[in-house]
Each structure stands twice: as C-alpha cells, then as structure tokens.
Design goal:
single chain; mainly alpha; two-stranded antiparallel ribbon; 19 helices; 2 strands; 75% helix; flat
Length: 404
C-alpha cells in the first residue's frame, strides 16, 4: 500500500510527464517539417512523409514525437498494404478458379493448380472451409496426382486446425500407410500416434506402429515401443500398453530410459489394471537394480503405499452384522519396511518426510500403538521442523499426549 507522500509524488510525476508530452506534441505540430509530412501522408505518399520527418530525429526536443508520428505512418502504410494484398490474393484465387471452370487447365496441371488455389485460401486468406473443400476435391478426383501426399498433409492439417480430429487422424494415417517416402511422413506419424488412438483409427494406427517396429533395426526400438505403449494407453488397451512399456524397458540403452519406461509400466499396472502384485514386482526390481538413479525414492514410496492400501490383501470381517474390510498386519508391516528403506537410504528426499508420517499413522490408527506413533512424529519434527506440515504434526503430538 502506497503512503500519502509517495502517492502525491507519483501523481506529480505523471502530471509532469503528461505536460511535457503535451508541450512536445504542440511544439512539433508547429514545425514546417510536421506540416509538410502530414500533407504528404494525406496525399497518399507515406514514404515522403517519413523522409520529411527524419531531420526532426536529430533534435532532442522533437525526437520523441517524431518517432511516434513515423511509427503511426508506417503502421497505416502496412495496414493499407495488407488490405491491398488480401484483395489481390482473393482476386488471384477467383481468376484461377475461373480458369479451371472454363477448361483452361488440363492434365497434370489441374490438381497442381487446385492445390495452389487451396493454399491461397488456407495460408493467405485464412478461409479454411474453402481450402478444406478444395483439398478434399483433389483427393477424390485426382488420386494418382504425383504429389498427392502433400495434399493429404494439407487436408489433415486443416482438419486438425478446425478440430475435425477424426478426419485429421484418418488422413495422417493414410500418409503413414501409403506414402513412407513423403517429406511429411515423420511429422504425419507423430500426429497419427497422438490423434489416432483417440478415434476410430486407433486399430489401424497401432498396427502401423507395430509394423514399423518389426521393420526397424535392432537397437533402435526403445522410443517406438514407448510410443506404442502410449498409443495403447490412449485407446484404453492397458494390457498391451503394459507389454509395450515392458519391452521398451528391456531395450533401453540407459538407466534413465529404463526407469522412464518402468514408471509408465507401474502406472498402468497400479492405476489401470489394479494389478498390485505386478506393480510391486516391477517396483522392487527397479529399486534394487537402479537404487542410485533419480526418482527411485518415489518408486519405493509407491511400493509402500500399495502395500498399505492394497484392498486385495485386506481381511473380510463382520461387525454388527455388516461386512467390513480390515488391512492385514503382514501387508502393513511390509509397507513400514519400505517406508524405513526410504527413510534410511534417502533421508534428504521430499518423500522421506511423507514416509515418516505414513509410518506413524499406521502405528497410530492401525496398530493402536500411540506411544510408537508419537515417537515417530517427533522424529519427523526433528528432521523436518521447517516443513509445511510441521505445525500440523506438532498439534497432533500435543493432542495424542493429552488424550492417550
């Protein structure tokens, strides 16, 4: 909040600056250069107007307003040029369309001329529906056109821009399927792998991606298997996605690549397939094999959380004629074991503090061992006294000591 003195000073500065600009504006308006420049601009000669104003740039008194006036003139000049260019582009398109309609363009020149017309509508006039219609006409009427791949590319790009994702995915897939030597092949394949799995083209695009992997030289498949896994994930085929990520992990050239693939695999097993045993198996393998790699602390924490919350390991009990589920002590002890591994081996990890809190909560709420829970909470406070949860844990310790 500004105090009164500061506010008054700021107001005076603004007033002074406004006054200076007004004086300068009035001063420049009385110069013969300004008068001549404005007349030249009114006579549709902006270049002469700018030329006349140039000498005023050497005078400190006139320079700021001269710069402003030159800027305005150039902006008006550019706007006029753009407007005229748009008119010329529109006229060019109309003339070329008339030439087509009157039979002036035949043979191989016909699809190329249509493509040029569509390009005018798309890139210059920004009339995308018209461009789309012409691209589609070329595909339908001239399928043997030697550069048909570029037409499919322009058609798909325009459809994607117009949010016609189903149609765009289909046409990107056509390029990948039929025109492997097209200069647009790689970019079309990238588009296909992202769009097609969300559409009716999912099966076709995944088949093409698998065929690509089968034809690749050994040692270059890692990235493509990850892409295949992503495509399966998008299409909801989680079991095949898991297999693709597992293949990618085994083909990785570096630890970082392997861990990245394993993380995707664990996410599928844990969150999508609910295969907790499979997720734990992978996480245990990764944490033991790559224990010094970045992110392993988070993977160990994830193992512990799965053991702590795995519904499949819970015991069914009947209380007051109602069926309830109770976590087994073995599963919880295993969770504690992994929390301890994280705390001992990665004491500076941001997950170490969470592990201490989770461990204490198990002793408090699951085992009813309040004294042990208090001890662990106090250990957390000694290690992470400045954390965002420190006050919350202090209150919990105070409450437990007063009530148990």
């Amino acid at each position: 909040m500004l105090n009164n003195k500061t506010s008054l000073t700021l107001l005076l500065v603004i007033c002074l600056l406004t006054g200076v600009n007004t004086v300068f504006a009035q001063a420049i308006q009385y110069t013969p250069e300004y008068q001549k420049a404005m007349q030249a601009n009114r006579d549709s000669n902006p270049d002469l107007a700018v030329q006349v104003l140039q000498p005023l740039l050497d005078h400190p008194r006139y320079r700021p307003m001269a710069l402003l006036e030159i800027g305005k003139i150039r902006q008006q000049q550019a706007d006029a040029a753009m407007s005229q260019a748009t008119m010329y582009y529109y006229e060019a398109a109309q003339m070329m369309v008339s030439a087509m309609n009157e039979g002036g363009v035949k043979g191989p020149q016909a699809p190329e001329t249509l493509y040029q017309i569509a390009q005018l509508y798309e890139t210059k006039l920004k009339h995308y529906p018209q461009a789309l219609e012409i691209y589609q006409n070329i595909v339908d009427e001239y399928p043997s056109y030697l550069a048909i791949d570029k037409v499919y590319w322009s058609l798909a790009s325009t459809q994607e821009f117009l949010s016609m994702l189903e149609e765009a995915a289909a046409n990107y897939t056509v390029i990948v399927d039929k025109y492997p030597y097209s200069p647009h092949y790689e970019e079309a394949r990238q588009k296909m792998t992202k769009l097609a799995p969300l559409t009716s083209e999912a099966g076709k695009s995944i088949e093409l991606q698998q065929n690509l992997i089968d034809d690749m030289d050994h040692g270059t498949e890692y990235k493509e298997y990850v892409t295949l896994g992503d495509m399966y994930t998008q299409s909801g085929d989680y079991r095949d996605a898991a297999d693709a990520y597992r293949d990618a992990a085994h083909l990785a050239d570096t630890d970082e690549e392997a861990i990245a693939a394993y993380k995707k695999l664990v996410t599928i097993l844990d969150e999508k397939l609910k295969d907790y045993d499979g997720a734990i198996e992978v996480l245990e393998e990764v944490s033991s094999k790559y224990h010094d790699a970045e992110g392993i602390d988070k993977m160990i924490f994830r193992v512990a959380m799965i053991y702590e919350n795995d519904v499949s390991s819970m015991q069914k009990v009947v209380v007051d004629n109602q069926v309830r589920y109770k976590k087994t002590r073995d599963s919880l002890n295993t969770a504690i074991k992994y929390y301890d591994t994280l705390i001992d081996n990665y004491p500076y990890s941001d997950k170490a503090g969470e592990a201490l809190i989770r461990k204490a909560a198990i002793h408090e709420t699951e085992f009813n061992e309040v004294g042990e829970a208090i001890s662990i909470y106090e250990d957390y406070l000694s290690r992470f006294s400045g954390s965002s949860r420190a006050n919350e844990i202090r209150e919990k310790v105070r409450y437990l000591k007063d009530n148990y």
